Amino acid sequence: MTDTSVHSLAVSPPAASPAAGPAAPAADGRFGGLLRTVQHGVWEVKSGDTLIGIVKRHYAAQGQSVSETQAYRLAHQLAREQGIADADRIVPGQRIALDRLPAQAQAQAQAQRAPVLDESSADALQLRAAPVTAAQALGASHALRPADAPVAARAPLRSYQSGDAQDHPVLERTLQRAVQKGFVPPHEVQAVHRRIVDMADKYGFAPDDFAKVSLMESDGLNPKATNGSCHGIIQFCGGAGRGADSVGFGRNAREILGLSVMQQLDLVERYFNDVGLNGRSGPLKLDDLYLSVLMPSARREKQAHVPLDIAGQQAAKLYVGGNRAGAITRQSIVQGLVQHAMARLGMDSPAPTKVARAPEPPLGTP
Questions:
Q1: What does the pLDDT look like over 197-217, one tens digit per residue?
Q2: Where is the domain boundary, 222, 241, 274?
Q3: What does the buried/exposed string (b/e) look like for 199-222 if buried means 16 or more CB atoms within 10 Å of the residue's CB?
Q4: Alpha carbon distances (Å) from 150 to 73, 116, 145, 178
Q5: Are residues 165 and 269 in the same domain?
């Protein structure tokens, strides 16, 4: 990933204040007035506040600390419990109850807890046919945002065994493999599948193409994949203005490794917005999807066979002829991603893909 602007769970411009709590704010001078609480454990939002910052200062006021990962999870817990539709947007004057936040030791346990699987390996490869609640589908480690509820209400979670194996065969195989390898808990696989399909609908790419990207970047949705400086399912890289920075983990990019696949998909969506995928019309092809992850600035070159300006050494399959001494082009990216996915999944390789570039709306610049 390359330079992007920094985002966090930030306050939107002033708007009408949501439902209230008690008034009478009481500033705490130990934090220069930044810690603004009101009676009965309710926080009044001021300009510049973020949900993550509120959580961290809440614990700091008690002489405790939480990591970026814990603060991220607890911030989404606050949003879910208090009907905040978008955890990235809180507004000045909004009041947020903090009395239900756990003690620091409990927060630590919650952040580190992994689901215990007692299902057989055969069951692990099957999606449950019976209806599941949101909590069961997502697992205790992921907070379902209220904004997701209307999407879920329009159609039930679909089993990709009932037709999507034909619609999205690469995604279906990738998810089965991810369950086998322990990347995705069996009870979360339906939710992961649905989230990827919904994201594909939103940004205009093929669900199978996202699976191909994840197979190249993280061996197929491995939330703990790392090369030392880049981490997670699409390899959020550390460093000022880079991928981890753009999704609120600039101080410690490695903490992304503590998030589940579902939580990292939240970060993927924020990153896609940051690099301009939400501002285009028409389909997003595989080469543009991958360049958005690898090097957004390289999307400016539209010709299929022109060498792209991509710094650093990449996977050999991405180069023309598989030769790292050569160039990376849009054509070689598509061929490399497809061949890599087919090899990883044990699928028959399709005929070589040609990239025909037609005029299309420009992508937003990072």
A1: 999 999 999 999 999 999 999
A2: 274
A3: bbeebbbbbbbbbbbbbbbbbbbb
A4: 22, 30, 10, 28
A5: yes
Q: Are residues 139 and 213 in the same domain?
A: yes
- What are the tokens at 236? 């959020």
Token pair 């990933």 is found at 1
Domain that holds residue 228: 121-274
> Binning pLDDT at 50, 70 and 90, where does residue 348 land?
low
For residue 138, give the nearest of 129, 130, 148 by alpha carbon: 148
Please, what is the end-to-end C-alpha distance for the chain in angstroms? 11
- 158 within a domain of the structure (yes/no): yes
Q: What is the pLDDT of residues 283-333, one digit of tens each?
A: 999 999 999 999 999 999 999 999 999 988 999 999 999 999 999 999 999
Tell me whether strands 95-97 and 42-44 are parallel, antiparallel or unpaired. Answer: antiparallel
| Overall residue count recorded for the chain in this entry | 366
Q: Which two tokens mark 182?
A: 């322990």
The phi and psi torsions of 220 (rounded to 5 degrees) equal 95, 70
Q: 88 CB contacts (<8 Å, ≥6 apart)?
A: 7, 9, 10, 270
Query: Is pTM beyond 0.70 here?
Result: no
Q: At what angle do helices 207-218 and 189-203 cross, to 10 degrees?
A: 110
Please tell me the total count of domains within the chain: 3
Tens digit of each residue's pLDDT (9 = 90 or more) over 322-337: 999 999 999 999 999 9
Per-residue pLDDT tens over the stretch 3-40: 443 333 444 444 443 443 433 333 333 333 334 444 45
In whole angstroms, give the CA distance from residue 323 to residue 52.
44
Bin 107: left if φ > 0, else alpha if -120 < ψ < 50, else beta. Answer: alpha
Same domain, 226 and 365: no
